[in-house]
Fold this sequence. Notes:
The structure holds 2 protein chains of 2 kinds. By secondary structure, chain A is mainly beta.
Amino acid sequence: SQQGEEDPQALSIQEGENATMNCSYKTSINNLQWYRQNSGRGLVHLILIRSNEREKHSGRLRVTLDTSKKSSSLLITASRAADTASYFCATPLIKAAGNKLTFGGGTRVLVKP
Amino acid sequence: DAGVIQSPRHEVTEMGQEVTLRCKPISGHNSLFWYRQTMMRGLELLIYFNNNVPIDDSGMPEDRFSAKMPNASFSTLKIQPSEPRDSAVYFCASSPTGGGEKLFFGSGTQLSVL
């Protein structure tokens, strides 16, 4: 089963508005990552937040992490049409020999011009 | 930096045929991952390698699927025989840090099995 689950599954907003999506996970983590996937392309890493961090910023992206609730949120401020994509959270299952990164089902974001 | 390179970009084949997907990871990366993406099941991790050694293949759906990494710069995912339900986008990704942090994805191979 998937470690992370995003909510909502889909989101439609007007250009200039903020977009917020959430991710819930099941087991303890040492970091949580967010990726973007444009239609027909591979995933692109956006931001990583460690378990001892509560908030992180990168440009127009803001990520929060609440380990007590096992949840994270991704906020995209002042959205643009180019932000139209699917967004995935991912958490690693750490093993001594290597790490297994599993993804949630994603949130499809449509930014209307 | 060329990024992760996958080939072919698209593959259309008939049921029962052998399919081989190829991946060249980013030079210097020590971990390689094969994922499959479908609308129904999302992104599934099939297998991953660390320093060319398969670490976890529990996601490989059936014995029809096999993966190899003969050296640090090349990996293959083979399906033999292929079935229509194997139709999906297959992604290869590599990581310089064992996969616990940032993954770099290829553009994927769109596989259609008729």
